[in-house]
User: Fold these one by one.
Assistant:
Number 1:
Amino acid sequence: MATEGTKFQVNFKLADGTLINIYATTSAELEAQLTTIQDTATLIGAVAGSLGSRGNAASYVANTLGAEVVSVAPSVQASTPPDGHCKHGQLVWRESKPGAPKTWKGWFCPSDKGTPDQCEPKFLR
């Protein structure tokens, strides 16, 4: 939770609905926390991929790094796709915003939007 000295707050909503809030009093502290989380998430993803399962990054971040996990919603994705990678890296779960005129959800190429050789999305039906 933010304290009186908090000057920076960053909020992340993960694909599984987990919310992670990071608070810092200086930009250096914020940068250090973000770097640690990025390194940790990369490591968890690599190990989970090696083991054929999904790691629990939210739990690790909360317990080890002291970040606050606000809530964890039930997983909406059936499972990671069997071919959870494309030539650009690990696929990313995305879905339409609540209340959108047309709902959709699926796995997307991690390359930037508009990349000439971006892979086709794999929509969940």
Note: The chain has two helices and eight strands.
Number 2:
Amino acid sequence: MKIPSQIIEVIEKLETKGFEAFVVGGCVRDLLLGLEPKDWDVTTNACPEEILKIFPDSVYENEFGTVGVKIKKEPKKEKNREVEIVEVTTYRIESKYSDKRHPDEVRFAKTLKEDLSRRDFTINSMALKINKGSNLEIIDLFGGKEDLKNKVIRAVGKAEERFDEDALRMMRALRFVCFLGKNWRLENQTFKAICKRAKNLKFISVERIRDELNKIILSDQPALGINLLVETGLMTLIIPEVMATIGVKQNRHHYYGPFNTVYKHLLASLEKCPSKKLEVRLATFLHDIGKPLAKKGQGESATFYQHEYIGAKMVEKIMNRLKYPNRIIEKTVLLVKNHMFYYNVDEVGEKGVRRVLRKVGLENIGDLIDVRIGDRLGSGVAKAIPYKLRHFKFMVEKVSKDPISVSQLKINGNDLMKKLNLKPGPKIGAILETLLAEVIDDPEKNKIELLIERARQLKEEDLISLRNIARKRINEEKTISESEIKDKYRVK
């Protein structure tokens, strides 16, 4: 375990003045897991005023005994910051939490044990003592090392009391389960306490709830986290619309064993979503949220007509309720609304693909395809990208790239009319096509002065024969370009 020299220096300065000081919290957990801590926290029996005397160039603007001590940044960190802040907090014990989030008052404690006993989970309640010679000693008073070994999230002390103190800890518990890696689980009493105290989440601001939800959605095991939110009853207070999807049977298009209900399909789709983007994962998770309202009939022949439009409106309301930024809402709603885009190789041509592009935007096509991939794999099919989806990608690139066009030329019809006194008519198109054919053979000719001069010469030529030659050359180039794109997507 490597401790940055700046942290060691902070601790040594406190100890030199006769105080205790320990590295504490999540950074100790990460060190023991072999991870690089993102932040470093120090706890001490020095009161804030005493800390400020030792580190006069510090920041103290809170009621919780936390002083922001400035240290020089590590060489590998951001170049635009000269210093970093290490939070040095006085041992403390806390009183009643009337708002289920913040203590009514903060009282400083005398011992490390008192301080560690107020923390959320055992794996976050270990301290690290740096002895002389930089020898490290783990202070583990609540079994955190054992829980790390067994991959268990356990509340410190009485779980219900910890969640009465801060209701957001319930979501943090679930986030740790799906964030720390495979095979992590909630300790049984901690799980039961969350179920009992789930209603306390209503005391937490929607912004904090949203931020924890985002971390779950973006973890490597998002479906596990979402399912725990449902099982504990927390989802009822976050996105109650999800609860309505439980038990709703799918139709024959999604009738694949374990994924035959809307809820299970949404979980599987989220788990299989290939994108790391928040709005894409949200769209994948919520893409069929409108199915319970849209469902007509039962069994394999049930229909869900226009569920994508119903779902898009629902998603917009959900995300506004959770106060997502407008750009995230707009993108997620767009993806949900268009996730049912129709494409069959022999039925939809270039015009159909252009219609999809106009509705979604070229910049969003890749994200829409990722939603479709999650949707497909969440239905139990074997292939993420079948032939027709590859063909759709080919068509998108073909119609959007427009590789051979007179628009590539440095001049246009207006330039010809002004410079050569030409009137609108087919002759202008013939000249431009001839110029394009010549530029294809020699891109260096695509310069305004050269093109105007060449156009002046072509004005006097037999443009019918020139045009035929030019079109042949352009079509040859189009065929080559299309062939290259087809090879890229392995389509015929």
Note: The chain has a mean pLDDT of 84.
Number 3:
Amino acid sequence: MYSSRDPEFIRERLGAEAYQRIQRTIGLLRSPQPLTEADAAVLRAAAAPLLRDLAATRMRVPDIRTEAHEDRPQAVCGWIAGRGVPGQGVWVMSDGSPADQVRELAEQFQNWASDVLVDAGQSPQWPLCPEHDRGHGLMADVRDGAAVWVCLHPDHVIAPIGALTG
């Protein structure tokens, strides 16, 4: 009988492929690997509008590390971190449209920003809706082929991602 910490037990429960991916991720966490120049360009392009929005809304702007800390099939993985701020793995799907890549990365940046805000004793919402006295956060979406920030009260586009103002 196997223990739940026994590698054979884990491999049997998850399957060989998932187990190997977890093992590769553990290795990458210990020793991140640099992205190819093409993958780094994909990550930087998806992050650029989000970095503009963070700066425009006076949030801390993280460093984008173009190194893989995770083994995620069909994705470009990277890392965001800042001085005195916890780091977080991020990813975009390699085969997604540029707008979809920005949208999915926006959701991950929102999680990172939420942690930063909570650690500072503030509301975890980022970005805040400029039309409703900043009473609620915006949602990232793709509309008409563009990544946008949407207010859900009522459902309407506030701005393209990358075009927020302070």
Note: Residues 150 and 157 are 4 Å apart (CA to CA).
